[in-house]
Amino acid sequence: MKRIFSLPIIALLAGLLFAHLTAHDQQHFIVDVKGKGTPLILIHGFSCNGDVWKETVARYQDRYECHIVTLAGFGGTPPALQPNFLEAVKNDLLAYIKTKKLKSPVIMGHSMGGILSFWAAASAPGTFSKVIAVDGVPFLPGLLNPSATVTSAKPFADDAQKTMAARTREEYKAYNQAVFQTMITSPARIEEVNAFASQSDIPTQAQVLYEIFTTDLREAVAAIDCPVLLLSAWIAYQGYGMTRERSQAAYQAQIAKVPNATLEVSDKAKHFIFYDDPTWFFEKVDMFLNKKS
């Protein structure tokens, strides 16, 4: 019988197939798992990594199996940059849940992680039991300007991406230091976060910054079929004329389409609520987690 495929050809085809599967299945994050119980997925914010959740994990790991996510190119992890990076992360998160057979996980994200939490829950109804967004909203530009759209935000997003991409490592570290001073009260915490944040891949941060400003989920979140808790902060913007009432109204508008959403407003914290107001943060999260759906 005539041999159709030689061994070298079979090896080549197998190699190509493996390469295809590897590329297709590549995850855009790493995960550290601690604890046992109900799955709890934790996603950090812009420039950061999973280290921001240390105190949160310490509190919940006796009752929850904490899946601590760090995105590729963040906080010293190798980059895996591609177009529509955040959407790829969201899709990989949903694939990860299926692969690991996580049953009705809770998902909690800070800032950018909050956006991803909203996006994942809206994209896969029936997957999550609860969503917690820590000062992360469906459309960031809309928080300051309710009439903002992706189109109107795009010029600013383009400029932000170009400016970020052009920074040297030292410039990026100095930029982070200045930004974190507006987001965190404790000087020690600012230094701690900047130590790992400044190791992030700059091209990745530039693209993600663009995507944050051009991703509008305000309509999409109507598909979320589980309870949502949004924790917000406002005092860092008092100097710009922000009041508690205006801030609360702006955050409430962000989740107006979510069928079952609760908004809580901290009067002490800046953006990193779990650092600035931990007692309040854990009180609100505990109440939400313990509440029967």
Automatic annotation (TrEMBL):
AB hydrolase-1 domain residues: 40-283
Keywords: Hydrolase, Signal
Record has Cytoplasm as a keyword: no
InterPro entries in UniProt: AB_hydrolase_1 (IPR000073), AB_hydrolase_fold (IPR029058), AB_hydrolase_sf (IPR050266)
Cleaved signal peptide residues: 1-25
Entry's Gene Ontology molecular function annotations: hydrolase activity
The protein's name in its UniProt record: Alpha/beta hydrolase
Origin species: Dawidia cretensis
